[in-house]
Write a structure and sequence with these properties.
This protein is mainly alpha-helical. The protein contains 16 helices and no strands. It has helices spanning 2-12, 14-41, 51-62, 65-76, 81-105, 109-121, 123-133, 143-171, 176-194, 215-220, 222-234, 237-267, 272-325, 330-358, 361-389, 397-413.
Length: 421
Amino acid sequence: MSVVRDLRVLLRLRDFRRLLTIRLLSQCADGVYQVALATYVVFSPEKQATPAAIASAMAVLLLPYSLVGPFAGVLLDRWQRRQVFLYGNLLRALLAGGTAVLILASVPDWLFYASALSVTAFNRFVLAGLSAALPRVVDEERLVVANSLSPTAGTLAATVGGGLAFGVRLLADESDAAVVAFGAVLYLCAALASLRIARTLLGPDPDPDQVPDRLSAALATTARGLAAGLRHLAARPRAARALIAVGLMRFCYGALLVTVLMLSRYAWSTTESEGLGLLGIAVAASGAGFFATAVLSPWAVGRFGPFGWMILCSAAAAVLVPALALSFRPTPFLVAAFVLGLITQGAKIATDTVVQTSVDDAYRGRVFSLYDVLFNVAFVAAAGVAALMLPPDGRSPLLIALVAAGYAGIALLLRGAGQER
């Protein structure tokens, strides 16, 4: 198969393997950390989780990225990306260790959230930098395959990290602090792995019109840099439409995730540990979907084009979400988790490829940071809508119907996008 052949070629590329290693370690740590936060906020016996509480936690942890994201983009187009991976992961290791101490000390929730935010904020730099650096280690001919393998492998690594978190929590007598500390070790490993890549290899290319590469100058010109990135994106309607579509898909996915959290916590289980186990199975099913799309997407993008594949994904979701989810039973929902994992990651692979091939390298960091901001705002908005609509047990046929309608609207939005520049 051509996909298998291309994957073998990619894995022979030394610098691609090294960049992939950073992604795997970093996102595995993210998975560990996210599960630790979820179990602490949603499944702790002393906490009564509600949709509003989940939405508030997501807002506290994700909305500030709307401020961090633009700075991340401008700085990523000035700083050497290898150094971002090195120092960003080192700092996250230190801060995650601090969060573990705070959990042990049973500090007030606001202090815990502040510490957790400090860890996850640097995720914007690392993930946007990984996407922006990928074309520096892969030729354009194999970029679609690289976008299938690299981000999907990262998502799978995060899923594995979530599984490891469950295992560590079990071995450590359900200690959330031990899980967070394990995540800190993985962040440290990701930082050390970045030292294997040459400092200048990952770019960015120097821009002759750019302010000298100093922190104070970069921060002083953030507004101008962001405006330039938006103008650059506006002049490329293919990339802009793909980002809008994938943001809307993220909204739909976020609403369903909050639904699964509430169903696992209350409707499908009688104890916190049972609910946590069901959530873990749902995460694993979604991860299997991510893996499936890594194999399927290169063929599908080649057969239908990136926008054709996104239309197929969103149309399939519009049909399958109500068919599988309206029963509100665990087994159909687990099938839906697999399908949505495949569909969501497939659309992201297509979007990454459109953005990477449509956006100039000097602007890529800014655009991918805006991409992250869009993802986070859409996710928090979805949690807010779910908080308004979901009953305590998570069963809301109206929310499922709105999500299905949203997927259908995305398919309509993307019609004709393939002919744009």
